[in-house]
UniProtKB/TrEMBL annotation:
Its main location: cytoplasm. The keyword Repeat applies. One of its GO terms (cellular component) is cytoplasm. Residues 6-41, 73-108 form the EF-hand domain. SMART domains: EFh (SM00054). The keyword Cell membrane does not apply. This is EF-hand. Pfam families: EF-hand_1, EF-hand_7. Keywords: Calcium, Cytoplasm, Metal-binding, Repeat. It is found in: Cytoplasm. GO terms for molecular function: calcium ion binding; calcium-dependent protein binding. InterPro entries: EF-hand-dom_pair, EF_Hand_1_Ca_BS, EF_hand_dom, Peflin/Sorcin_CaBP.
Length: 186
């Protein structure tokens, strides 16, 4: 993914190249083939599905060209943010960089909690009988996992703030309200 601006005509050519079945729309599989992290690893499917949930406006399970334009711009903006916080330019965001990112986004999350998030977003691939972790730095996330983590934190914070209308940092909910929150986010 280039970080420089590309024209709509270039995006249309790229879209057509990605659309291997010439359907005029992209599937999660087609999109996953071209979205790569800085280490050339593909975006994980969870991130692809999250992006689809944000940009598949007609909810037909595919991304048309107009939806793709929005998705592409969104990814480019995240790429810009990612490179801003990847101070050592190693292609991943370590915990100290993640703490700074979250604070700049307005989320005061402890280092301990961020480590839990990082562990959740580490992707392990099975090859034969061996497991490989693409993101082999202990406390770091790749670009796609950074995007997924940030969107999850923002979504969770928005839900929390809806219940914390007084802004106290505490919420009280019954079991059914809790279950509603879970259902809305699955």
């Amino acid at each position: 993914m280039a970080t420089n601006k590309i024209s709509e005509q270039q995006l249309q050519a790229f879209f057509s190249h990605i659309d291997v079945d010439n359907s005029g729309t992209l599937t999660t599989t087609e999109l996953q083939r071209v979205l790569l992290n800085g280490d050339w690893s593909p975006f994980n499917l969870d991130t692809i599905e999250l992006l689809f949930s944000l940009f598949d406006h007609d909810r037909n399970g595919t991304i048309n060209f107009n939806e793709f334009i929005g998705l592409w711009r969104y990814i480019e903006e995240w790429k810009r943010l990612f490179t801003t916080f990847d101070k050592d330019n190693n292609g991943s965001i370590e915990i100290p960089e993640l703490v700074n990112a979250m604070k700049s986004f307005g989320f005061n999350i402890s280092e301990q909690m961020l480590k839990k998030f990082v562990r959740k977003y580490k992707i392990t691939y099975n090859v034969g009988n061996r497991k490989f972790m693409l993101n082999n730095l202990d406390d770091s996330v790749s670009f796609d996992n950074f995007v997924q983590l940030c969107i999850t934190v923002k979504t969770s914070a928005d839900i929390f703030r809806a219940f914390d209308q007084a802004g106290t940092g505490w919420v009280k909910m019954n079991y059914e309200q809790f279950m509603e929150v879970i259902l809305k986010n699955k």
